[in-house]
Amino acid sequence: MADAASRRREAPSTSPESDSRRRERAAELRQARRAAHLRLESRAEEYRRSFLRMVSHELRTPLNSILGFSELISAEIYGPLGAPEYKDYANLIRDSGQKLLALSNQVLEIARLESGAADLAARREPLDHVLDDVLDGLADEMRARKAEVVVAGQGALPDVIADPKGLRTALAALLSNAIVHGADGGEIRIEATLWDGEVRIDIIDQGPGVDPRDIPRLLRPFEQGENALIRRREGAGLGLPLAFMLCKGMGGSLTLTSRTEGGLCARVRVPAPAG
Fold first, then answer.
1. Phi/psi at 200 (nearest 5 deg)?
2. Beta bridge partner(s), residue 148
3. Predicted confidence band at 230 (pLDDT cuts at 50, 70, 90)?
């Protein structure tokens, strides 16, 4: 009994000052850990950016050479090739190189967007000019599929606030998807409306549509749904995810809706100019 009482008397007492000091030290340790974590994230981000710059250069430089020389061969700049098959092969090399270049550009752009390294600078853009550029770039694809693109109210479309290159890339990806997966020789309709401080751009095709359960998957890179619409054409499944990320990065949004009467509606929302 005496020994127990002695131990109780000798037990150290906890003062308010010591409790306060322990809390301060714990807070300091948490702050140090957060600072270290931020430093690691910053270093990793710099590594990602350096990697993207390196990959961009290493992929595009040889592809540009392949494209350039295949075009020279196809055009027979330095004389006839002989057998006509050689010209066909040169065209196949060029077309394959263009597809690979487009794919590498999409992969790099998605990587930039995911890492926050993409430089999107929003400014006022006339939607008429944007669509003119996009349609000019897709002219060969439209002819190959005999697709007709109808722009409602063309010439009097509203202006938007968006990154010029980002908006063109997003709309080109959505229109290309509508051309590829729409009906052969079908109509693709583009409508733009000003609504509550934003511009809604609808791209509507006449294809078979998509199972609504597949839509979330289509907005993830390299994902493909089970619908025949997705599998009957070649492609890596990057166009829709890229458009989705670009719209989000510009302060807008992208939604896909399978229409009851057939076809898919891709709706882009971007801010409208003030006033």
1. -100, 125
2. 187
3. very low
Note the pTM of the prediction, 2 decimals: 0.71
The gap from C-alpha 216 to its chain's centroid, in whole angstroms, comes to 15
- Asked if the model's pLDDT at residue 5 lies above 60, the reply is no
Instruction: Label each residue of 158-171 as H, E or C.
Output: CEEEECHHHHHHHH
**81 touches 73 (CB < 8 A):** yes
Long-range contacts of 208-216 (CB under 8 A, 24+ apart): 208/262, 208/263, 209/258, 209/259, 209/262, 209/263, 209/264, 210/256, 210/258, 210/264, 211/258, 212/258, 215/256, 215/258
Q: Residue 33 has which token pair?
A: 């850990």
From residue 69, alpha-carbon distances to 22, 24, 39, 244 in Å are 71, 68, 46, 35
**Residues 266 and 242 sit within 8 Å (Cβ to Cβ):** no
Q: What angle do CA 179, 180, 181 make, to 5 degrees?
A: 95
Diameter of the chain by CA atoms? Answer: 114
Pairing of β 253-258 and β 198-204: unpaired
For the stretch 137-183, pLDDT in tens is 999 889 988 999 999 999 999 999 999 999 999 999 999 989 988 88
Two structure tokens written together for 67: 């494209």
The C-alpha atoms of residue 185 and residue 174 are separated, in whole angstroms, by 17
Going by C-beta distance under 8 Å and a sequence separation of 6 or more, which residues neighbour residue 237?
218, 221, 222, 223, 224, 230
* pLDDT, tens only, 237-275: 788 999 999 999 999 999 999 887 778 999 999 999 986
Q: In the block, which residue shows the tokens 């494209």?
A: 67
